[in-house]
Amino acid sequence: MIDKRCNLIGYVGKQCSMYISLNKNDINSSNIYFMRLTLLNFIKIGDLQIQNNTNSAVFTPNQKNFSSPGLPFCTDFEPKKGRIFQIRGYVPHQSGRFEFDIQDGPGVQPGNIQFHFSPRFDDSLSRDPVVVRNNRYFGSWWNEERHGGSPFRRGESFEVLILIDDSDYKVIQF
Question: What keywords would UniProt list here (predicted)?
């Protein structure tokens, strides 16, 4: 179990709309990805503009609400088993890619990225859209996971849930 304070951080590259919240009780989707979890510090959101953010602890009514925060956006959170990040957004027609990074520290190029989730429409290794999952330790990227295709489409809205488990991140897209 991870018991250290963490932050949620957002970066923007292209114009897009997004809503982020922590914890959602009704999870129902078949698009689930898994990635190993070791240490969690920050989440980075690339190519998206945050509209609103809600942060709540598991099974408590306490919440932090943010309306149209500036970017990059950063807020504390406690990484516990059962914590869920809900991310809603819209992929612009011209978007090439965007990403969510759970990382050590708030920097743009941190040494460790515990979870890299990158929907790509312009990937040179795939003629079809793909969701790349990976992590980076001590400045070196590990092996990418690319199987499963991509449920994301240009010009469409999306919703993603990222669940923190004991040893995994579970990502559900619907």
Answer: Lectin
Q: Looking up tokens 């400045």, which residue turns up? A: 139
Could you tell me which residues are beta bridge partners of residue 117?
100, 133
Q: What is the pTM of this model?
A: 0.64
Collapsed DSSP state (helix, strand, coil) of residue 69: coil
- Asked if residues 83 and 164 have their Cβ atoms less than 8 Å apart, the reply is yes
* Burial class of residue 107 (count of CB atoms within 10 Å of its CB; 0-12, 13-18, 19+): exposed
Q: Which residues contact 59 (CB under 8 A, 6 or more apart)?
A: none
Instruction: Measure the CA–CA gap between 54 and 46, rounded to whole angstroms.
Output: 18
78 touches 153 (CB < 8 A): no
Burial 76-87 (b: 16+ CB within 10 A, else e): ebbbeeebbbbb
CB hemisphere CA count around 26 (13 angstroms): 2
The tens digit of pLDDT for each residue in 116-148 reads 888 899 889 988 999 999 888 888 889 999 988
Instruction: List, in order of start, the domains of the chain with CATH numbers.
Output: 6-173 (2.60.120.200)
